[in-house]
Design brief:
binds adenosine-5'-triphosphate; two-stranded antiparallel ribbon; Kinesin; ATP-binding; 402 residues; microtubule motor activity; alpha+beta; 29% helix
């Protein structure tokens, strides 16, 4: 697993005497101590400072999108304390007029919209392969899963509640989850805009736009010939035209809904090539610092418990325990296949600049160290044309982390 540590500032590190020159460097996450050195090696991870652009961060993880099209499951997850920049890293900044929307500024776009664009760019490079892309968006709020695409955002306060089940083959699935076929990055991002408007936010003393839920965006790539209910492939060009391909990131969910066709995941009869999961976790939080009470305090308790469950799962995986406690939380149950299955998993640690956040920063680094100890083995390759899997079946895979 590669672990990125964005937004560590000089003041925090120099005050701890742990930041060498040059400023951008690599962190030995197992210690954790800072080491000077030109290249990341085993046990080290790239670190990004506050001045680093979103494009640079995405540039480093772009190869994962190539892996996706080569048939690997991929999961990219942002972890860190509240207000440390997880949503900024994964989605981009909030829109100034409406904190539930993303800013339109292209240079600030986060990993999710950039991944959508890169995915369709790579697909367009190889039309003979051209998989269909189905997107689902869920949030886990107070240990309940909500389908954020199940209802129209104008009529629903929140998406509809779902359950995770473990299939006979041992994979986790959310039955009847709404999946929407998208034929372009514009459509993909349009769905994200629509879904995140339903995501629960509450102001806290630490962060006025604090996300109170875990957001999980899943893109399932399926062989083109297998999905009878998705938009016909020949319509892709016209759909892109209608959605405004020249104005890629400015699609507003309020302007027009994306040209997508709903697909019930249970109806998939084709072959899944690979799955991309993009996860913006809710922030770990000390209730005394964030000043939460009432409903927000209850949310904090659920958030911290689910993050503790995630740490427990990573601990059990790293110690090769017989029992991995995936079912202790909806978060770990839902992400079971990505955390302990055959996915390439990239964990991004976000830490807040400033001396007062040192304790939380060190806690986040310890979490990263634990994740790092999970045994890594080469991912099992699934050639797109020969060894495809049925949805929900999967190949028997040993835990494989990047
Ligand atoms: N690298 C950055 N450059 C500029 N602004 C940033 C950066 N990182 C974070 N921010 C800003 O800091 C604020 C908090 O960031 P963000 O909403 O991403 O935090 P978070 O970790 O997702 O918090 P929470 O867990 O409470 O939802 C936002 O206004 C965001 O735009």
């Amino acid at each position: 697993m590669s672990t990125y540590i964005p937004y560590v500032t000089q003041d925090i590190c120099q005050s701890k005497g742990i930041l060498p020159a040059p400023y951008r460097n690599y962190l030995d996450i197992a210690s954790p101590t800072w080491t000077e050195g030109p290249l990341p090696a085993v046990g080290t991870a790239p670190v990004y400072g506050p001045a680093e652009s979103q494009a640079t961060v995405f540039g480093d993880l772009r190869p994962l999108l190539i892996s996706l099209l080569d048939g690997y499951n991929v999961c990219i997850m942002a972890y860190g304390q509240t207000g440390s920049g997880k949503s900024y890293t994964m989605l981009g900044p909030h829109s100034e007029g409406d904190s539930a929307l993303l800013s339109d500024a292209l240079e600030d776009l986060g990993i999710i919209p950039r991944a959508a664009e890169e995915l369709f760019r790579l697909i367009s490079e190889n039309p003979s392969r051209s998989p269909k892309v189905d997107v689902s968006i869920v949030e886990i709020y107070n240990n309940n899963i909500f389908d954020l695409l199940a209802k129209d955002s104008s009529t629903a306060m929140s998406g509809s509640k779902c359950q995770t089940v473990t299939t006979q083959e041992g994979r986790s699935e959310v039955p009847k989850l709404t999946c929407r076929a998208v034929a372009s990055a514009v459509e993909f991002v349009g769905l994200i805009h629509r879904g995140i408007q339903l995501r629960v936010q509450h102001p806290t003393l630490v962060h006025k736009n604090s996300s109170r839920s875990h957001l999980i965006v899943t893109a399932t790539l399926t062989t083109a010939s297998s999905l009878g209910s998705t938009a016909p492939q020949s319509s892709q060009a016209s759909l892109q035209k209608k959605a405004g391909a020249g104005n890629r990131w400015t699609t507003s969910p309020r302007a027009s809904s994306p040209h997508t066709v709903p697909v019930d995941s249970a109806d998939h009869s084709g072959q899944v090539l690979a799955r991309l999961q993009l996860v913006d976790l809710a922030g770990s939080e000390c209730a005394a610092v964030s000043g939460v009470t009432g409903v927000a305090l209850k949310e904090t308790s659920f958030i911290n418990r689910s993050l503790a469950a995630l740490a427990d799962v990573l601990g059990a995986l790293s110690e090769r325990c017989d029992h991995i406690p995936y079912r202790n939380s909806k978060l770990t149950h839902l992400l079971q296949d990505s955390i302990g299955g055959d996915a390439k998993l990239l964990m991004i640690l976000c830490v807040s600049p400033g001396q007062k956040h040192v304790a939380e920063t060190l806690r986040a680094l310890k979490f990263g160290a634990r994740a790092r100890q999970v045994e890594r083995r080469p991912s099992r390759r699934r050639p797109p044309s020969s060894q495809m899997q049925k949805p929900g079946l999967g190949l028997a895979g040993s835990p494989t982390l990047l």
